[in-house]
Amino acid sequence: MKGKISDARLSDLLELISRPRSNDEELSNPQRLIQVANLLRPLGKDQALNVMFCFGQLDLRRNDWLFWLTRVLFKPRVPSDSFAFPLIGVPVVYPPNDLGQFPTYPIKVLDDIPLNVWEGGSGGGHPEPFYYYVQRESPHWVLRSASLSPPDDPFPSYRAFLNSPEWKSIDDSKSAGWDRERGAANALRQILALVSTAYDPKEPQRNRRDLSDRDYDRYHEAFLKLHCRWDPKRQVYVRGDGSFTLPVAKLYPSKGYVFRGIPRLDIKVTWYREDDESVGFSAKTTESPGAPLPLAILRVVNERGQEYYQSLLNGGGEPLSNRTHMPSGQTSSSGWRCPEGTKVRFIVEFDNRTYESPLCTT
């Protein structure tokens, strides 16, 4: 990939992109997509792609948003073309059969606000690395011509999004477990996340999951009373007096435990808090030489025995996500939801024996 940038400048850019962020901000907060796109655009296409690739190598836990950043930072070279969808699973929110109806799926940039319909994907195997996607598809892209600058009042953009051809093109029949009311609530959450530096309803995150279009008017009215505006210098929304509030993100260290008493098999589990309600988790097995080992079952339970997670393991391989084989040498990840401070126990059932970890704090 062409384009050179000094190590010092690259380090500065990666630090700016990596600033602490709240849970799911990559997907639910258009602010980060706007800020990163505006940061990278002056570098030119090749250097911007290099920085994105470097960041993807550093932050492997949750970087699906890099695929969506391409829809914000670039446009198809031929206006009538669409972005190819990356091979990262079958989407929950299904695109139209003709991507020309939603050429930047799953992102729609409306009034310089990137609104995202992506709610995750499913499927076995290994997702396509971002670098491979860039190598294959980036020749078809051109850099956007101007920085993004959202309107001072972004709430009407939400309603415009729900009336857009792209929104109407989503294939409801294939979008299992999704409906338009849920999708509309997700779009409204994104607007609230975008303006949260100037206006925050101070509601628990769990209440935000129960939003509906009926909540639009009260949020919009409260926002307007603060006379908020987009500040292009700070790249955030500010109140009428110029003040704003940046979120304070907690930094959670990773923790781990290794099962070493299992004959010919070591299992290392690693977990980390993504926020005060969610735990990210990965497991890796190492097999000693010899005949193939039987499958093991890995379970995660709390103090009361409530199960949060279960996976099959193959000796010398990885968690069998959804009972689908994953080859050796890779680590599989998953997670669960529980309040911060919950104590859990990791349990391995292998060859008719059970192995338990001590209680671990999440």
Would you tell me the structural class of the helices and strands? alpha+beta
Radius of gyration: 22 Å
Number of strands: 18
Helix content: 25-40%
Which regions have little confidence, pLDDT < 50, spanning 5+ residues? 20-26, 315-332
* Inertia-based shape: globular
Quote the beta fraction: 15-25%
Order of helices and strands: HHHHHEEEEEHEHHHHHEEEEEEEEEEEE
Q: What is the subunit organization of this protein?
A: single chain
Treating each run of at least 4 consecutive H or I residues as one helix, how many helices? Answer: 11
- Average pLDDT confidence is 81
- Tell me the distance between the termini: 41 Å
Q: Main sheet, how many strands, which sense, barrel?
A: 6 strands, antiparallel
Model description:
Helix content is about 25%, strand content about 25%. It has about 350 residues and is α+β, with helices and mostly antiparallel strands. Strands 12, 13, 14, 16, 17 and 18 form a six-stranded antiparallel sheet that branches. A four-stranded antiparallel sheet has the order 9-10-11-15, with no helix packed on it. It has a two-stranded antiparallel ribbon with strand order 1-6. α3 crosses α5 (about 65-75) and α7 (about 155-160) runs antiparallel to α9 (about 180-195).
Secondary structure elements and their pairing?
Layout: H1 7-17, H2 25-28, H3 30-40, H4 45-58, H5 65-73, E1 74-76, E2 90-91, E3 107-110, E4 113-116, E5 121-122, H6 130-137, E6 141-143, H7 155-162, H8 165-169, H9 180-194, H10 205-208, H11 216-225, E7 229-231, E8 236-238, E9 255-262, E10 265-273, E11 278-287, E12 296-302, E13 307-313, E14 319-320, E15 332-337, E16 343-350, E17 353-356, E18 360-361
Antiparallel strand pairs: 1-6, 2-5, 3-4, 7-8, 9-10, 10-11, 11-15, 12-13, 12-16, 13-14, 16-17, 16-18
Helix pairs in contact: 3-5, 7-9
